[in-house]
Amino acid sequence: MNQIKLAAFDIDDTLLNKDNELPESTLETLQKAHKNGVIITLVSGRAYPSAYKIAQKLSFNVPIICYNGAMIKEADNSTPIFISNVEQEIVHQMVDYCHKYGLYLQIYDEQDNIVVEKINEKTLADPDYYNTGCREAGDFNKLKNINTPKMMIFDKPDNIVRLQAELQSIFRERLYFTQSKSHLLEMMAPGVNKAVSLARFAESLSLSSCEVMACGDNANDIEMVKWAGVGVAVANATPELKAVADYVCKYERSDGVAEAIEKLILFNKI
Question: In this structure, which topology does domain 6-82+192-266 adopt according to CATH?
């Protein structure tokens, strides 16, 4: 196995434990990998401010790939290295669809704020709400410009499965659909996913995929885990992700991250 020079970690249900905290033991393992010359990056569906809050817990600079790959930012730089927004016509079509069927839609603006038509219990259930700004827009269609890297629909898991199939048949290649949790349907511009942006970031460092480890737990991590030279699934990952991983951890979430670093980077053996 090639020496790992870049390690990428999903945040929710991967890097964080069940209490949505980064344990000291995992933090120490990440710092040990950094001291051994490994670049650590966070790759998340979260908004930048929410991911940045986690990155701040580390004592070194952590580049952040957020919105499922729609944005790449250095943790100490307010200017994105890369950003891809959904076409405004597509946003308005999605707004019309959600209005027609009474669906709750949440979008993010260029200032990384959550934008909703009206704040409700679904807004408050989103971890991003507590780490980013949030504003009520009234009717989305009254907004002249909606530049958004990501849109989300919240609903029951069974409904999300049906909605994804239906919306994919409507929008086809004009949107990329994925899920980080069973009750969320996340939508980005076509050509956007975690793997594409992780590859873009690795290329900027003159690294190939075989020098990259990527670790995740859910559907929005599949492309990234497949692309990386060493793809890792934590023990609580979905069966679909485990099926494409090179290594499946014995432990869940943050304990699995520490396990992967110890076995695959620090000792370089499975």
Answer: Rossmann fold (3.40.50)
For the entire predicted model, the pTM comes to 0.94
Listed residue (218, 259, 210, 214) closest to 237, CA to CA: 218
DSSP letter at 87? P
Q: Which residue spans within 109-166 are E strands per DSSP?
A: 114-116, 134-136, 151-154
3-class state of residue 152 by DSSP: strand
Q: Comparing 63-67, 97-101, 127-131, 194-198, which segment has the lowest mean pLDDT?
A: 127-131
In angstroms, rounded to a whole number, what is the distance separating the alpha carbons of residues 82 and 73? 7
Please give the structure tokens belonging to residue 48. Answer: 């930048």
Helices 253-260, 24-35: inter-axial angle, 10-degree rounding: 20
Q: Are the C-beta atoms of 147 and 109 separated by less than 8 Å? A: yes
Residue 11, φ and ψ in degrees, nearest 5: -95, -65
Q: Which residues of 148-187 are buried (b: 16+ CB within 10 A; e: fewer)?
A: bbbbbbbbeeeebeebbeebeeebeeebbbbbbbebbbbb
Token duo for residue 153? 């629909």
The domain spans of the chain are 6-82+192-266, 88-188
